[in-house]
Amino acid sequence: MTQTIHESPHYDIPVYKVTLVRENNLTQQQRPIVRDAQSAATILAAYLAGEDREHFVVMMLNAKNRIIGINTVSVGNLTASLAHPRDVFKPAILANAAAILLAHNHPSGDTSPSREDIALTRKLYEGGQLPGITLLDHIIVGDHDHWYSFQDDGIGLA
After folding, report:
1. Contact between 37 and 112 (Cβ < 8 Å)
2. Other C-beta atoms within 10 Å of 12: how many?
């Protein structure tokens, strides 16, 4: 049976172009390689310094762990910041990241992870398996150069 295409009604369908836009550079020097939690925490502490609310960020890395960039996923309140997997992985996919490193600050200065921090880290670790983006660590930045590494503590990561 042959079907014919009838004149279809006019549809107003939006067409999207997805792009990654660089807002600025942290420095003019070559982007560093993340070798361990300490090197990541130093960079992230500088990025999150002085924030009075929780900021959840994703650091995107290439296959050799050189930093591609940092994206602020969400800004919360004094004690919490929400992060959904699609918002975490979207900039990493657009940047062709091989791996990511998560971070958020605790304005209270206490770097102890909450139950929610642990649950989110596990969820995001599992979520990275499908697109092939490795979650290397989740850093909590406190005050006075204090920080916490999920990887170093063995929580939430394989």
Report:
1. no
2. 4
Q: What percent of the chain has pLDDT over 70?
A: 85
pLDDT of residue 26: 56
In the chain the first and final C-alpha atoms are separated, in Å, by 56
- Is there a contact between 157 and 121 (Cβ–Cβ < 8 Å)? yes
DSSP state, residue 138: E
* Predicted model pTM: 0.81
146 CB-side CA count, 13 A: 11
**Is residue 39 within a helix (H) or strand (E), and if so which, with residue range?**
helix 37-48
Residue 72 tokens, joined: 């602020």
Region 30-37: mean pLDDT is 89
